[in-house]
Amino acid sequence: MIIAEQKPFEEIKNLIEPAQRVLVVGCGTCVTVCFAGGAREAAILAASLRMASKLNGDPKEVTDVTVQRQCEWEYLDTIAEQINEADIVLSIGCGIGVQAIAERYPKTWVVPGLNTAFLGLPAEQGVWVERCAACGDCILGLTAGICPIARCSKSLLNGPCGGSQDGHCEVNEEIPCAWQLIYDRLQSLGKLEMLYEIRPPKNWRTSRDGGPRKIVRPDLRLSEEE
Amino acid sequence: MSSVNVDYQIVAFCCQYCAYAAADLAGGLRLQYPPNVKIVQIPCTGKMDVLYALQAFESGADAVMVAGCMPGDCHFLEGNFNAVRRVERVKDLLRQIGLEAERIRMFHISSSMASQFVAATEEMLRTVEAIGPNPLRVSGKAHPQETCGLPSG
After folding, report:
1. Mean per-residue pLDDT for A137-165?
2. How many CB atoms lie within 10 A of CB A74?
3. Chain B residues within an 8 Å CB radius of A10
4. What angle do CA A122, B71, B58 make, to 5 degrees?
5. Rounded CA gap, A147 and A140, in Å?
6. Handedness of CA A174, A178, A179, A184 (dihedral sign)
7. B98–A47: do the CB atoms touch at under 8 Å?
8. Letter string b/e over residues A59-72, b meaning 16 or more CB atoms within 10 A of that residue's CB
9. Does residue A67 contact residue A104 with C-beta atoms inside 8 Å?
10. Which residue of A9, A10, A40 is in closest CB contact with B51?
11. What is the pLDDT of residues A66-125, one digit of tens each?
12. Are residues A92 and A37 in the same domain?
């Protein structure tokens, strides 16, 4: 899922400073699960902003609403009235949610309340870790299900490098060396010989190097008549 | 008790298994505690939500007490430890908002600790008397019916 965290409160206050009526829009999917932008966080942020603005001598009308997914038009359409009544929309969805609101409501000023961090999973309660870099050309089948693109600091295809020390990355002792993890897992699966194969340079055009990406599925598109 | 400022409003979220019973016992023992304290019974302090506290402060409460079981004695094993962390988060939020973090505090009070419950409420009252009323109050008095932050019924 998409992992995000709330921006510093001061930054959020500055972003909404010019507005009187603020609508905090939460998202019920990824950012709910990572406790950054769900219904509860939206209510907490709205209450905090109401109190802070009142103490500041400029009480704002801050309300909150949460949609199931900010990244789909259908869900955004359900809150059209609230969005249109607001001077500013403070989205606490991921960056996709912020842009979806901006795209669907061209006349609405929308600002982000979160910093979208990475694609990952909750490793334990309150701890999220990165697992995917969305490179567009998955090589997990070659690396024992451990992604060196997302989890190796150098995104090496033929690791480990000389900076791997006792299973840890030289960048930070808390980072496990992805290539050590790959080696250990290949060994436990009896497939160490896979490491003899030298991987050629990756085609990064499927990643960000090819510009903004798009997928079209003709079989799923509605015909023009519809 | 003669110097009590009855305008101060303290909302006490009390676990039904310990602090709530301690408050009940205090009543049974005829121990007096400040009338400023409005008790909200919750099934466990693990039910304590950050939002409950914020809603209490937004409605004008001067302080919030969260009173749960002694460490290790939670009926639900670790609800009181979860509450400790949530109270810390509320303290952070209060600092950001511009209110004093001392306005909320966690207490551990078993069901037999009636006198400690009384002491905790008096201590909380002394704290708010020292830092003053909640500046978010519209009028001089808080609205007790709005301070609990819990749905009725």
Report:
1. 96
2. 9
3. 96
4. 70
5. 6
6. positive
7. no
8. ebebbbbbbebbbe
9. no
10. A40
11. 999 999 999 999 999 999 999 999 999 999 999 999 999 999 999 999 999 999 999 999
12. yes
Q: What is the dihedral of CA A52, B60, A62, A69, to 10 degrees?
A: 110
Per-residue pLDDT, averaged over A158-165, amounts to 95
- ipTM score for this prediction: 0.88
Has residue A127 been placed in a domain? no
Query: What is the model's pLDDT at position A172?
Result: 94
Q: Is the CATH code 3.40.640.10 the one for domain B10-132?
A: no
Predicted confidence band at B149 (pLDDT cuts at 50, 70, 90)? very low
**A75: how many CB neighbours lie within 10 A of its CB?**
19
Dist. CA A63–CA A190, nearest whole Å: 57
CA-nearest residue to A53 within chain B is B97
Question: A residues 23-62 near B, CB within 8 Å?
Answer: 40, 43-44, 47-48, 50-52, 54-56
Domain that holds residue A33: 2-118
pLDDT per position as a tens digit, A20-71: 999 999 999 999 999 999 999 999 999 999 999 999 999 999 999 999 999 9
Does A215 map to a domain?
A: no
A110 shares its domain with A140: no
